[in-house]
Amino acid sequence: MIEAGLALGLLAVSLALAVAGWRLQSQLRRRLPDLFFRAEVLRSEALRLQRSQRQIADAQRLAETVVSGGTHTVRAIHRGIAAIPFGILEAIPATRDVTRIVRTSHDLISDAVYGSIQAVNRGVGHGLRAGLNAGLPPAAPDPGLGPPGSEPTALK
């Protein structure tokens, strides 16, 4: 009699677990498309963010290169223009010694200014790259969701 009661109890528990499992499976089956869609939306947004960060990083590198090249060009032109009056004044014996001192001071100051511009440009560039790269994971293929850079099919 006790064995029959235990068997009946186990049968009831088994039946309850089977019904609960079936309900859970039904709920998951209904929610699965939504979960997949959300995953694709999140993946698409992450890819868009990566592309944006890479574009910003590329623009920053270009800006740093342009500032560096412009600084080198302006420095060379400045030195060339300054050489004209210094050359004339150094050719005159009465002004030669003072002109050399002034020219040396001028060149040191201008080199310090242009060097500072270059250093700030490199420092700002390094800081921006570090900030951008901190939030930019390397692109890795994601099997099953398409190649990197492709839009999920649900969002096309």
N- to C-terminal distance: 65 Å
Tell me the overall shape: rod-shaped
Mean pLDDT: 87
Give the number of DSSP strands.
0
The percent range for helix content is over 70%
- C-alpha-based Rg, rounded: 36 Å
Biggest sheet architecture: none
What oligomeric state is this?
Answer: single chain
Low-confidence stretches: 140-156
Strand content: under 5%
Structural class: mainly alpha
In N-to-C order, the SSE pattern is: HH
The number of distinct helices, counting runs of at least 4 residues, comes to 2
What does this 3D model show about the protein?
Residues 138-150 have a biased composition (Pro residues). Residues 135-156 are annotated as: Disordered. Helix 1 (2-91) runs antiparallel to helix 2 (96-134). Helix content is 83%, strand content 0%. It has a domain at 47-131. With 156 residues, the protein is mainly α. The model is unreliable at 140-156 (pLDDT under 50).
